[in-house]
């Protein structure tokens, strides 16, 4: 369950590393020792360029990762995300190819338009290096809807030449090879790997169907991670994904959003859905009582991010973070710590 809400009167110490308004890649000297990654989980149309930019300017990440499912082929949202002035990497999800089964030969379909918007920042089967902060992001399979079947086979075959799970695993493995040795490697996928549990509240557990194998992870991602670790001796400190929403179906509570593997790989699910809450009347009244904001100023939203703090090449802290954005104030609304290094 979420911890109690609180209102930070001033900037929380968490956000004090670098004072550049847009931290982006402009703090290389700091970045070598401390890096902040903001994960934006499945968007599902909950995106506002102005408000999310304000929230991110407040959080000052070095890198923003998007786990996909922007909407049902919502090109406008994807274009807005592409316009964001932060270093970023993106993977498209199953909802981003909701209607398009194959690429259109005549006019550009919405999957092509989304891919064009994102360019090289769409990291499917690719590696994107961020040398100033010494981070590399390797993308998994795009359009995944989880489980054993390969979703959107014709798209995968036409664009990436991938026809089955085995080829997909090898493409992910290949993308990771050559990662600079001193870089922190993050795998970014729409859905997590198999092997992390089959209970309905497990990080990739089916919460809508009971009785059968409930592990809804991606077998190719699991295979690729094994190949990289066992054959190529690649260290994978962080795997970030979404798709499996935090709130479980049928009111069954909440999902485990983090797993620390036996070899210290951290698997992080960022799919807090919906990621935006409108500031309710009750909260507005309490703010009025405190004299902090007038009711008109209090009109705003709280927006979810998962923050990953990396220190000296290791994950130091991960927190589900809600940022309140009103007309003239941006504040930390809530922080729930998911992981802290011992
Ligand atoms: Zn999805």
Automatic annotation (TrEMBL):
This is Calcineurin-like phosphoesterase domain-containing protein. Transmembrane segments: none annotated. Pfam families: Metallophos (PF00149). CDD domains: MPP_NostocDevT-like (cd07397). It comes from Clitoria ternatea. GO terms for molecular function: hydrolase activity. Residues 35-246 form the Calcineurin-like phosphoesterase domain. SUPFAM superfamilies: Metallo-dependent phosphatases. InterPro entries: Calcineurin-like_PHP, DevT-like, Metallo-depent_PP-like.
């Amino acid at each position: 369950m979420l911890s109690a809400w609180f209102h930070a009167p001033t900037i929380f110490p968490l956000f004090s590393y670098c004072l550049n308004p847009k931290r982006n890649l402009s703090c290389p000297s700091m970045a070598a020792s401390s890096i902040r990654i903001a994960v934006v989980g499945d968007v599902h149309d909950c995106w506002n360029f102005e408000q999310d930019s304000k929230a991110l300017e407040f959080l000052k990440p070095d890198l923003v990762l998007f786990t996909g499912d922007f909407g049902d082929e919502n090109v406008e949202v994807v274009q807005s995300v592409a316009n964001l002035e932060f270093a970023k990497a993106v993977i498209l999800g199953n909802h981003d190819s909701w209607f398009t089964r194959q690429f259109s030969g005549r006019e550009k379909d919405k999957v092509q338009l989304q891919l064009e918007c994102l360019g090289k920042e769409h990291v499917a089967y690719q590696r994107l290096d961020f040398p100033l902060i010494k981070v590399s992001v390797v993308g998994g399979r795009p359009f995944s809807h989880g489980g054993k079947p390969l979703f959107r086979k014709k798209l995968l075959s036409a664009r990436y030449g991938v026809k089955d799970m085995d080829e997909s695993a090898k493409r992910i493995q290949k993308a990771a090879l050559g990662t600079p040795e001193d870089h922190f490697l993050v795998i970014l996928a729409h859905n997590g790997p198999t092997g992390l549990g089959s209970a309905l509240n497990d990080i990739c557990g089916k919460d809508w169907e009971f009785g059968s194998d409930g592990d809804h992870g991606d077998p190719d991602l699991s295979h690729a991670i094994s190949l990289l670790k066992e054959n190529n001796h690649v260290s994978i400190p962080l795997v970030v994904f979404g798709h499996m929403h935090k709130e479980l179906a049928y009111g069954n509570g909440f999902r485990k959003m983090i797993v620390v593997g036996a070899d210290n790989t951290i698997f992080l699910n960022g799919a807090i859905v919906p990621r935006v809450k409108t500031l309710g009347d009750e909260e507005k009244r309490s703010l009025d009582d405190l004299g902090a904001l007038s009711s008109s100023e209090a009109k705003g939203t709280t927006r979810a991010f998962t923050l990953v703090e990396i220190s000296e090449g290791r994950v130091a802290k991960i927190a589900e973070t809600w940022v309140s954005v009103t007309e003239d104030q941006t504040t930390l609304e809530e922080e729930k710590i998911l992981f802290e290094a011992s």
